Fold:
Amino acid sequence: MKPVMRISILGLLLAGVASTGSAQFAEDVLRFSQFGLGVGGRTLGMGTASVGVADDYSALFWNPAGLAQMRNYEFSAGISYHGYNNSTQFLGSKTASSDDVINLNNLGIVYPVPTVRGSLTFAFGFNRVANYTTNAEFSGYNSASSIIPTLMPDVNLYAMSQSELKDFLDNNIPYQLFLADTANGRLVTNLLGNVEQSVRVREGGGMNHWSFGGALDVAKDFSLGASVSVVSGSYSYIREYQESDVNNVYQKSPGDTFGEFDHFRLTSTINSSITGFNALFGLMYRKQGLYRIGFTVRTPTYYTIDETFSDEARSRFDPNEVPPASTLIDEYDIAFDGRTEYKVITPLKLTLGASLQLRDWLVLSGDAEYTDWREMKFDTPNADLESENRLIQTLYRPTVNLRGGAEVTLWEYGVKLRGGIALNPSPYEGDPPEFNQFYYTAGAGLQLDKDVWLNAGYALGNWKTFRDNYFGGSFPPSRTSENITTNSVNVTLSVRF
Structure:
């Protein structure tokens, strides 16, 4: 596998260059380009294979052409649970962590318009289409490297003017915390490894679609549909990083400009407000009682991300062995914060789906979704972000997500049983198969009244990944190996009238 740098620090390592400028990376675009497990309890139970089914409110998200099948009004409301579990291997130590969240998954209505023949149907509502809740915790003794050198750009200080030099040093975390000093026109440090490292990362937020769409029959058994969505969402990130001299390696020698290092802590936070828009176009051909074929084109989403960020750092030295600048305290603090705005364009998505009515009690469905992840990009003239756009061309690849499901109806009991599977290949070029995301799903529908259904779906997800805690280029990275397991539940109430 190519050495892809999946970083958890999200650009805040550039705090050593200026006052904590929040840099954006290709992974930021990827995050906002991916959807979760979609909308609807029934759909989740069938492996999210719905483009060729799409015969309820969830068609607004999966394939709006399917709305033309509906002849009754429908009200839909659903909630979802998302549990994220991470088993992290780091420097020989394994740590388990978990997080979960409950959200409103959908709330909307389907409105069919009476027609002489054919169908004309509209729908509008709210859909929660992505969830960013993740976590990671790990710790271990790193004899090979420290994060401190990565916070110190290798620049020629002699080439700077006095004002440039002052600004540079005033905004460099290691220098301000007496973890680095100047020598021969460079920043230098004696912290090169032999430290206990521990990290705690939490991400949160999600993406919402406020959608309006409709469908009409343009010929017998053939319908076209479209929906437009105003997108809103949020993303939060907090990372607590610590390094400690647990073995008392760093002793102060006569003439040293460094203190007797004991502990370093860096807390980085990001909070993003997300707005945007996209559209979904679909078609469906139906052979009553036999099969349905659907096809959708989801346009790129055009996002604007308004982001606030901060770094808070602290160094601690053994008492009476602090840097020569002061002998009165053994702890030093520094903090930076800022705000930025950037734009993102996600890739086009093409999906082909079909369903087969093998018996009046058995339905099979399947979807194939094509995405070329190399199409995502930052929409900006900024030179640094343009370099990230070029990097996207080499880091990512096209993928085809595969989804399949089955539904069995037990008419005499008013119950529907469902099962399915979904495969989302890793979008990274050269990733091994174990980095692909697999979801195994099950679900059931219970008829509460003639036109009232309660549908529940469950999905178990599993895959592996890694993250680079930091990357220094000339020494081994601080890297984790992670095994992710997710548990997702969606419960939806549908009322037709």
Summary: Residues 12-496 form a domain with the Porin fold (CATH 2.40.160.60). The helical segments are 26-33, 41-45, 59-62, 162-170, 173-176, 383-395. The CA atoms of residues 366 and 404 lie 4 Å apart.
